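Q: Is it fine to ask for two folds in a single conversation?
A: Yes, each is treated on its own. Send the first.
Q: Here.
A: Result:
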Amino acid sequence: MKTSAGILLFKREKNSHYYFLVHPGGPFWKNKDAGSWSIPKGEIMPDENPLERAVIEFKEETGQTIEGEFIALSPVKQKGGKTVYAWALESDLETSGLYSNTLQMEWPPKSSKMIEIPEVDQWEWFESEEAQRKINPAQAAFITELEKILNELK
């Protein structure tokens, strides 16, 4: 079964929490919005450290390196069966200079035609309630869990 690892970047402004989410690139995702966004993440290879993979994927999907005090969150299982491991990190990130690596994909499906697409085509900060609507439904649990942790730390 596939597993992925990613980073839920968050920041606090006034009395609100904001979450950094990415939108997948390519024609399949072009007009999809609610439920289509994700934390920056990628597939974990066998014998690979999941947190190291999460940090690498963040760089691949944003062009930015991150470091700090990572908060481990409980893994979630997405509808397709993939398990996603995540760590939260409090940090701010300017979205204007971000860029993603690209990948080759067959499009249209079964056409044997290959196109190059960005892995991520949008990056945005969302306030908690909107982030919950935008993110993949299974990954919304990361936001809920993190907010519970942050409330307990107050």
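Q: Second one now.
A: Result:
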Amino acid sequence: MDPRRGRRAGRGQAMQLGMIGLGRMGANMAQRLHQGGHAVAGYDPSPEARMRLEAAGMEVVDSLQALVARLEAPRALWMMVPAGDPVDEAIATLRPLLAPGDVLVDGGNSWYRDSQRRHAALAGAGIAFLDVGTSGGVWGLQEGYSLMVGGDAEPAARLAPVFASLAPAADRGWAHVGPSGAGHFAKMVHNGIEYGLMQAYAEGFAILERRRDLVPDLAGLAELWRHGSVVRSWLLDLTAGALRDNPGLEGIAAWVPDSGEGRWTVAEAIELDVPAPVITQALLERLRSRQDNAYADRLLAAMRAAFGGHGVKPA
């Protein structure tokens, strides 16, 4: 790899990078970096994932050992793997292969305290560890990513050209937000806020849907709100598109998963004695969405029948 090859104007010096994890996010990030003039090699345990990136004109290798060997020291590697054990397993494999001065980035949705633990463990070997909260989803390749960088200042500054290429622009959409753990802490709270915003939009449109006689075109209303309204946002943009493409939401089950970061946000709020009722309720509504014929609802109906003689709808 030649780190001196072409670069995107205004984004700084081109760099080498190894991308670990070539799922939807990792593969798109690798491609955006490649488009920005960086020399990127990718690895994923899935041959299919490697083949997809290779078909896009990217370099891939078939092992972490090969990835490390492909990079010139001091190396920079970026992990986009599921939180928890997969991160620790990747680090355990990489640690004996890396050398003092190398930088390892976790750009996934790890718990910030795990990131602090990993930073401390790697620091003893002279390996820098950055936790980077990454937002942008499947649109990141086209629109850029919001990057919340946590960790020591020197390696964060060293990787500034990488962050600048991944972000929507070199001078915005990314920042070194604090010490070890800060990036994933900020992303955790970001996702908690996201839960609340999504729930508010969902509830508002549910009310509107009940009065189609008054407002029959919900997609049109969402499009109207996108321009000039105080509730305009990218989430509203996506909502307007979803309603336009599928007004009746056909084929979509009322079952909403959660990534885990909403739970961490609520737990942190409780530990810090910070009231967070909106985020908490939004999380509980996601849990509720997964219950068909919920026991609690059936018990509520039974109680109403017992104390007030109210009718019970047959199952």
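Q: Anything structural to flag on that second result?
A: Two points. The longest helix spans residues 182-210. The longest strand covers residues 128-135.
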